[in-house]
Amino acid sequence: MSAGQQTLALFGGVTAILVAASLIGFVLTSRYAESPVVGNLNARIKAWWVMVSLIGLAFALGKAGIIVLFALASFAALREFLTLTRTRRGDHLALAAAFFVVLPLQYYLISIEWYGLYSILIPVYVFLLLPIVAALRGDTANFMRRIAEVQWGLMISVYCVSHVPALTTLPIPDFADRSLLLIAFLIIVVQSSDVLQYVWGKLLGRHQIAPSLSPSKTVEGFVGGIASATLLGAALWWITPFSSWQAAIMALVINLMGFCGGLVMSAIKRDRGVKDWGQMIEGHGGMLDRLDSVIFAAPIFFHLTRYWWTV
Amino acid sequence: MIARLFAIAVTIFARIVTGVRGEWRGCLPEARQRIYFANHSSHGDFVLIWTVLPAALRRCTRPVAAADYWRQGRLRRFIGDKVFDAVLIDRDPASRQADPIEILLAALDRGASLIFFPEGTRNTTSQRLLPFRSGLYRLASARPQVELVPVWIDNLNRVLPKGEIIPLPLLCTVTFGPPVSMAPGEESGPFRERSRDTLLALAPAVEGEV
């Protein structure tokens, strides 16, 4: 199959799953019309239609489409993150720079495939320059906490998210025209892990796995979700440069990272006293609620692939 | 016509910059005469309230604003008069020709709902909410049938603090609380205190600034 055919096959498969999900949602609604769980499920499925359509559109536009899509996702994530931080007047300029300079620059560097700079822009240059901007404003109250929160927001919302489109810059032998499929692999595996954890948890969940962080996560959901999403990853080896067992290991690693990412982001939400990061995606919460697992999986997936599969 | 389009453009702009969301926590967006009383930290405050109101309510809801600010320059005059149909009051007792409360009562008697900032001025201090002036009490005692709805505007002071030029695209929320009504014979002091507490109770527990 050519890259185009593979992409079509993938989107065909995803669409078929969404049709099935919508039908199940429809049947559940006719039986348990009043249930808030079913209402939320249907809202989530509807939101998935929108998200899959947007990703499909981005794929159709190619690399530029993917970069723009994830730049916008970063923007939404960063505003959700920084809304919850405790910044002060003195941070205004540094925050404006984060939104209007650092974020566009990071995605520009990815578009010109300058690995040497996009991989250190935020952890080195921004890490050192933003506190200078804030310090020059002279407000020292809670200085270290403010700086740390802004840096963390940029790392999570911009740096980590940008590693999804950065996958297209990897020089993998005999894979040049199919780099978008690597993104499809990452997103499909990690997001289906989230969905399958939710499904297994709702069906069989008894024992909470992290009660102080996330009361809805269960051991049964964790094991069932990670295992089935890992199998799914192995079954998708044909769109990757990996063999089937390599694809399974990659899927396992990103699923575990994704799960832990969800826990870390829950810990932050707990600390700040909110249930969701935002209300942008109906049924799911905010952009960060939907992306938390991808955020933690993307840079690791990027570097493992880069280390072992690029020339 | 231009004013209508301008109004739509302003609300779209407000939604893009602040992602603003209205939360009706203590009442519903019903078509009844109300005074929405809110915290005031930015010139954009009434724009946010206006943006989250349903279009039908928006048309009969008029912000109360300072004449000295909104009569300056043609653009502000156009926005104040034509776009938002603001009720302008003169804050300076020396220069004004009419009692501001009389102007507001006249607007209420023509059926309008009002967006009112009982602190009387923009809050640029680190306090969350300044003490209320007497305006709200005087309006409430003169027109007891009008519902008083507390509205907390969160985060707009961080989007564009005083003296800054670039707005930050942080998320804002506008929370509508349970209506406050005046107890029979209630004095100005206790009423101001009580309505202020109801408004403060809508503010999120998390402080934007510590």
How does this model look, in words?
The complex is a heterodimer of chains A (311) and B (210). With 311 residues, chain A is mostly helical. Chain A has 3 domains: 1-61; 63-169; 172-311, no CATH class. Chain A is 74% helix and 0% strand. Chain A has 11 helices and no strands. The longest helix of chain A is centred in the N-terminal third of the chain and has 29 residues, at 3-31. Chain A starts with a helix and ends with a helix. The model of chain A has no long low-confidence stretch (mean pLDDT 93). The longest helix of chain B is centred in the N-terminal third of the chain and has 17 residues, at 2-18. Chain B has a single domain (2-200), classed as Glycerol-3-phosphate (1)-acyltransferase (3-Layer(aba) Sandwich), CATH 3.40.1130. Chain B is 37% helix and 16% strand. Chain B is of the alpha/beta class. Chain B has helices at 2-18, 45-52, 55-58, 67-70, 74-83, 100-109, 135-142, 156-159, 188-200, and strands spanning 21-24, 34-38, 61-66, 87-89, 113-116, 147-154, 173-176. The chains are: A mainly alpha (311), B alpha/beta (210). Chains A and B meet through helix 3 and helix 4 of A and loops of B.
Which CATH-level-2 architecture of chain B?
A: 3-Layer(aba) Sandwich
Radius of gyration of chain A: 20 Å
Give the CA-CA distance, first to last residue of chain B. Answer: 45 Å
Q: Of all protein chain pairs, which has the greatest interface, and how many residues does each chain bring to it?
A: A-B, 23 and 18 residues
Integer count of domains of chain B: 1
Question: Secondary-structure element order of chain B, as H and E?
Answer: HEEHHEHHEHEHEHEH
- The beta-strand count of chain B equals 7
Taken as a percent bin, the fraction of beta residues of chain B is 15-25%
Could you tell me the radius of gyration of chain B in angstroms?
A: 16 Å
**Helical content band of chain A:** over 70%
Mean pLDDT of chain A: 93
As laid out across the biggest beta sheet of chain B, the strand order is: 1-7-6-2-5-3-4
Q: Strand count, sense and closure of the main sheet of chain A? A: none
**Helix/strand/pairing category of chain B:** alpha/beta
Compute the number of helices of chain A. Answer: 11
Query: How many domains of chain A, as an integer?
Result: 3
